[in-house]
Design a protein that fits this description.
Layout lengths: L1 H24 L2 H21 L10 H30 L2 H6 L7 H27 L8 H28 L3 H5 L2 H9 L12 H8 L2 H13 L7 H25 L2
Pfam family, one: ABC2_membrane
Subcellular location: Cell membrane; Membrane
Membrane topology: Multi-pass membrane protein
C-alpha cells in the first residue's frame, strides 16, 4: 500500500512539473488571467467607486474579495483548455500505456491550477495594496482566506475538468469560464445585496459567491464571520465533491 502511494505521489509530482513548465514557458497566461481583474478593480475603484454606496470609505477593501474570485474564474478557462488539448493530442492515451498511475496526469492539471491561481492572486493582492487596500487580519485569518480560496479553486477546477474532457471543440472547453464570470457581478462583490430588487436580490443572496465573498471580507477586516463561513464551505465542498465524481467518470472514458 505504501509503495503504491509512493509511486502515485512520484507520478503526480512528475505530471505537476510537466504542467507547471507549460505555465512558466508561457507567462502570458498568468498575465492574461490577471489583466482583466486588475482592469475591473481600477474601473470600479477610480471611476465608479464614488457613486457606489457600499458602507465603507475604502472601497478597494470592499471590492477585493470579489476580484479574487474573478481572478480564479479567469484561470479556470485555461484548465479546461489544457485538458482538452491533452485529450485531442492523445497525451492521455500515451500516459495510460505507460507504467504510471492512471489518475496522475489529471491530478497534475488540478495541482497546477492551484499553484497558478495562487500566483495570480498574489499579483492581484499586490496591486490592491498599491491602490490602498489595507487589512487588520492576523495570520490565522489570512490562512482561513487562503483555505477558502483554495477550496473555491479546487471546486471550479473539477468543474472545468468535466468541460475540458468532454468538450468537442476548443471554444466549448473554454466556455465554462463565462457563466462563472457572471456570478460575482450578481452578488455582494460590488454592491450590497440590499440595493438590489426582487428576483435579482433573491438570486444574489442564495448563490455561492455571495457567502464566499462575505466570509473573505469579514476575515480580511477581522470581523465575525457568522454563518457565512459554513455556507461558503458547504458550497465549495459540495460542488467539489460532485464535480470530482463526474470528472473522474469522464476521465476514465477519455
Amino acid at each position: 500500500m505504501e509503495t503504491t502511494r509512493t509511486y502515485f505521489l512520484a507520478d503526480m509530482g512528475v505530471m505537476l512539473g510537466r504542467s507547471m513548465r507549460h505555465i512558466f514557458r508561457s507567462m502570458d497566461t498568468i498575465m492574461t488571467v490577471t489583466i482583466s481583474p486588475i482592469a475591473i478593480m481600477l474601473l470600479f475603484v477610480y471611476v465608479l467607486g464614488g457613486a457606489i454606496q457600499a458602507g465603507t470609505d475604502n472601497y478597494v477593501n470592499y471590492l477585493l474579495p470579489g476580484i479574487l474570485l474573478i481572478t480564479i474564474a479567469n484561470g479556470i478557462g485555461y484548465v479546461s483548455y489544457r485538458l482538452f488539448m491533452d485529450k485531442q493530442r492523445g497525451i492521455f492515451e500515451r500516459f495510460h500505456s505507460m507504467p504510471i498511475a492512471r489518475s496522475a496526469a489529471l491530478w497534475g492539471h488540478v495541482l497546477t491550477s492551484l499553484l497558478s491561481n495562487a500566483l495570480s492572486i498574489i499579483v492581484i493582492i499586490l496591486v490592491a495594496l498599491i491602490m490602498g487596500f489595507r487589512s487588520s487580519a492576523g495570520p490565522l485569518e489570512w490562512l482561513a482566506v487562503a483555505g477558502i480560496l483554495g477550496l473555491f479553486t479546487l471546486a471550479l477546477t473539477w468543474v472545468a475538468a468535466i468541460a475540458g474532457l468532454s468538450a468537442k471543440t476548443v471554444d466549448g472547453a473554454s466556455a465554462i469560464a463565462w457563466p462563472i464570470h457572471f456570478l460575482p457581478f450578481i452578488s455582494s462583490a460590488f454592491v450590497p445585496t440590499q440595493s438590489m430588487r426582487g428576483p435579482v436580490r433573491a438570486f444574489a443572496e442564495n448563490q455561492p459567491v455571495t457567502s464566499i465573498v462575505e466570509t473573505i471580507r469579514a476575515l480580511l477586516s477581522n470581523q465575525p464571520v457568522g454563518n457565512d463561513i459554513w455556507v461558503a464551505l458547504a458550497w465549495c465542498v459540495g460542488i467539489m465533491l460532485v464535480a470530482y465524481v463526474f470528472a473522474m467518470r469522464v476521465y476514465k472514458n477519455a
